[in-house]
Design a protein that fits this description.
Number of strands: 4
CATH class of the largest domain: Mainly Beta
Distance between the termini: 54 Å
CATH topology of the largest domain: Pemi-like Protein 1, Chain: D
Structural class: alpha+beta
Number of domains: 2
Strand content: 15-25%
CATH architecture of the largest domain: Ribbon
Strand order of the largest sheet: 1-2
Order of helices and strands: HEEEEH
Length: 83
């Protein structure tokens, strides 16, 4: 683990990630982050992987009209439209 960086939470519950950290991790404005809480009360932030908007699957993807879908959900939608 790397050096500890301390930040205070503001009145709205926000924290600012230091510019150096954002640059090193490739986190830009609009980057989605997953937030995990562990049993030891630690909080972990991780850049979000692709997630299908229907089922949450993070595997095969395709983007249509700004939304991401997995192959399985696309096939289900296609079958529903054809029927």
């Amino acid at each position: 683990m790397r050096a500890v960086i301390s930040r205070r939470i503001d009145e709205l519950g926000r924290i600012v990630l230091p510019k150096e950290l954002r640059r090193e991790l490739g986190i830009e404005s609009g980057t989605a982050l997953d937030i995990f809480m562990h049993a030891d009360d630690s909080i972990v932030l991780r850049k979000s992987k692709f997630r299908c908007v229907v089922c949450g699957n993070d595997e095969t993807e395709r983007e249509i009209i700004g939304e991401r879908f997995c192959t399985g959900c696309l096939e289900g939608i296609e079958k529903a439209l054809v029927s």
